[in-house]
């Protein structure tokens, strides 16, 4: 499946289209070069999933947690594995607890956590096109 994103104003539509296609999947790995818009798209995606929390890059904390509804018990986990340098860092996080939570898990820089991602992870690629639009491929 491909979702085109013309510009930043197009993000809510693209995120809604992505949500409609998610099905029962809960684990999504976003692959894209630096500056392609992974965090920006994930922020729009969190809003489309019903979170009122402001999604931001968890580069230094590695994982951010967002409530799906104000005061709600449903969560979205947003990972950024960019700064992960050792296997021990991943093991110390207790990733299995996140994977087994039933919550949506959105992962940036999944390449740094290969071997630790759930088997049912859906790969999502974001490509920057020559006209500066984006193509999201699931």
Multimeric organization: single chain
| Envelope shape | globular
Instruction: Give the H and E element order.
Output: EHEHEEHHEEE
The total count of strands amounts to 7
Major β-sheet annotation: 7 strands, mixed
Work out the helicity level.
10-25%
- Mean pLDDT over the residues: 92
Order of strands, main sheet, comes to 1-7-6-2-5-4-3
Radius of gyration: 14 Å
Report the span from N to C terminus.
5 Å
Low-confidence stretches: none
Structural class: alpha/beta
Explain how this protein is built.
By secondary structure, this protein is of the alpha/beta class. It has helices spanning 11-22, 38-48, 87-92, 95-99; strands spanning 2-5, 27-31, 63-67, 75-80, 104-108, 122-128, 134-137. A hairpin with a 5-residue loop joins strand 6 and strand 7. The termini are close together.
Set out the fold topology:
Elements: E1 2-5, H1 11-22, E2 27-31, H2 38-48, E3 63-67, E4 75-80, H3 87-92, H4 95-99, E5 104-108, E6 122-128, E7 134-137
Helix pairs in contact: 1-2
